[in-house]
Design brief:
Elements (H helix, E strand, L loop, with lengths): L1 H12 L5 E11 L4 E4 L2 E5 L2 E4 L4 E8 L6 E7 L9 H8 L3 E11 L8 H17 L27
Parallel strand pairs: 1-7
Antiparallel strand pairs: 1-4, 2-3, 2-5, 5-6
Length: 158
């Protein structure tokens, strides 16, 4: 009987022991930049978010008056998250493990565009666009291979 109680105890309480918290924090100088993760907005700096998988994430920071910043950030896998140690650290280890990654980025001020340079680029693109000839649309009606021919309409007999 004591053996079955011990088995029940193990199945009920051992899964409650282990826990790994995975989090990253993003800050920028200046603060207040909108953060996009894989194209989806997730918050304004300084901000933090949880993650499930280690690897590369694509972040984009956008703030008015500053150049948008695109980066691919790698979050490395710690030693205790490789099999078979990951089972022990996530399920059997009696304490909570906090895995926090901090990223800080410097945003560059937006560079003013020179008017003459912009006009030169526009003129060049306009001339290049005149050289492009569009394809003539081909409008031929071809019957479909397995289509039925429509014949004369006969009156229905009741």
């Amino acid at each position: 009987m004591k053996f079955f109680r011990w088995i029940a105890f193990c199945f009920l309480f051992l899964p409650l022991l282990g826990c790994v918290t995975r989090k990253y924090t993003i800050d920028s100088q200046p603060q207040g930049a909108m953060v996009y993760k894989d194209g989806k907005p997730i918050g304004v700096t300084p901000m933090d978010d949880h993650f499930t998988y280690y690897g590369k994430y694509k972040f984009k920071l956008v703030k008015d008056g500053y150049e948008p910043l695109d980066m691919e950030q790698k979050i490395p896998t710690p030693w205790y998250e490789y099999p078979p140690l990951d089972f022990i650290s996530e399920n059997l280890f009696p304490y909570e493990i906090h895995n926090i990654h901090r990223f800080s980025y410097q945003l560059q001020p937006l560079q003013p565009v020179l008017k003459e340079e912009l006009i030169n680029k526009a003129t060049h693109l306009r001339e290049k666009g005149k050289e492009v000839t569009p394809f003539a649309p081909v409008l031929e009606k071809k019957p479909l291979a397995n289509s039925a021919q429509i014949g004369p309409q006969l009156p229905l007999k009741y």
